[in-house]
Amino acid sequence: MKNLTTHLRQLTAAFSLSLIVTTGIHAEEQKNLQLDEPSLSNLHLEYGKVITRRVSASTPVTGAIQLDTTRVHDVVPRISGIISKDYRALGDVVKTGDPLVQLESQQYALALIKYFEAEHEMEHSVKSYSREKSLVEKKVSSPELLLKAEHDYRIAQITHTASLQLLKLLHLPESELHRLLNQVDHADLTKHLITAPADGVIIKKEVRLGSDVKPDQMLLTIADLSQLWVDIKVPIREAGSLKLGSLVKISTAIDQRSATAKVIYVAAVADALTRTILVRAVLNNKKGAWRPGTAVSVQINDSLAKQSGSSLAVPQNAVFDIEGSKAVFVKEGKGKFRLTAIRAGANDGEFTQILSGLTADQSVVTRNVVQLKAHFMMLGEE
Questions:
Q1: For every residue of 280-315, which 3-state class applies, written as one string?
Q2: What is the distance between the alpha carbons of residues 85 and 104, in angstroms, rounded to a whole number?
Q3: Which of 58, 255, 268, 289 has its CA 20 to 30 Å from the CA of residue 24?
Q4: Nearest-angstrom CA–CA distance, 152 and 130
Q5: Residues 354, 308 contacting (CB under 8 angstroms)
């Protein structure tokens, strides 16, 4: 008999809950929950107001923060040599032109010597050509000698240009070359300083003092983290609402951070396996709050949907499912709550639109709603 009575009570409670969320009955007929002080204290509830605001439909998808590869620089020596000095550590912030490592390089010394020789030959050929040209004008020399002087000048010019190419690859300005040329008797031509090609943070480093490096060997990677990419896999059915310049909202569940990113790329071809479109958005990270590799939730506002005016809305954490419908807990007084059926509309990731069931300025539970629901469900078992 006791089991039968308990079963009937559970059926009655379930029917009452179903009635609340499916019939839209009046508030005075809806079931209330009264908590004593210890229970209320243990739940650590928080509350929010029913407010009036615009809520746009949005679709939640996942994404990942990536490096903006247009702002990443791999540093290679471009010549062979031995690392004799290391000026930077992993994670250091550098500016363009800051010293990174120093090489002792025989190849570098030979390239400088070749350039110096070409520079002297160039000066000699220019003087010879000018002298012959002057002599021919005075009819003191022959045109044949002028032609040979011009030929020697052109060859010296080509040799000079060729000897300069490797040094240009090393980003060595001619002003520095001329300084070394004037001090060639005392300068150490084997030491080559490799400097930062751009502003950024050293995110990868493969440098060891005394190691022998090759021209194509990667030494460091410098990344400008002030701007990042967010790569998003968007279902094909949702991709139509995204255009270049569209805004998406990203957030993390770990620390509740959020930011807005701007779409800069929408793939023209879908992934055949996942049936998704790659969408890339650019994220301002000047404050350094976001890290590449972080998984994020992305809210895509449906820009194609008809935007309605302002309407009633509640924080999305206040809304929960019960018996296949939506409901909230309205705070009626201290420790007193009323389960209220609602008809929900759009959700923009922060707020849920309320089409019916609530009035402005009502207070609703926004934290530990599931635990409060469990207390309510226990009423049917008492």
A1: EEEEECCCCCCCCCCEEEEEEECCCCCCCCCEEEEE
A2: 9
A3: 58
A4: 12
A5: no
Residue owning tokens 């019960």: 322
Tokens of 72: 């990443």
pLDDT higher than threshold 90 for residue 24: no
Q: Say if residue 264's pLDDT is above 90.
A: yes
The per-residue pLDDT for 174 is 75
pLDDT per residue as tens digits for the range 206-244: 999 999 999 989 999 999 999 999 999 988 877 776 789
Return the structure tokens found at 285. Answer: 């990270």
- Token pair listed for 23: 């019939």
Per the CB < 8 A criterion, the answer to whether 223 and 264 are in contact is no
| Separation of alpha carbons 202 and 221, rounded Å | 6
* Distinct helix (H) and strand (E) counts, the chain: 7, 23
Instruction: Show the domains of the chain with their CATH numbers.
Output: 2-57+308-381 (2.40.420.20), 59-68+225-301 (2.40.30.170), 77-222 (2.40.50.100)
Q: From the centroid of its chain, how far is CA 195?
A: 26
Rounded Cα distance, 20 and 34, in Å: 17
At 183-196, the pLDDT tens digits run 777 778 889 999 99
The two tokens of residue 17 are 């809950």
Residue with tokens 């990443």: 72
d(CA 347, CA 168): 57
DSSP conformational letter for 216: T
Q: How far apart are CA 346 and CA 215, in angstroms?
A: 58
CB atoms within 10 A of CB 330: 25
- How far CA 267 is from CA of 8, 145, 241, in Å, comes to 58, 66, 13
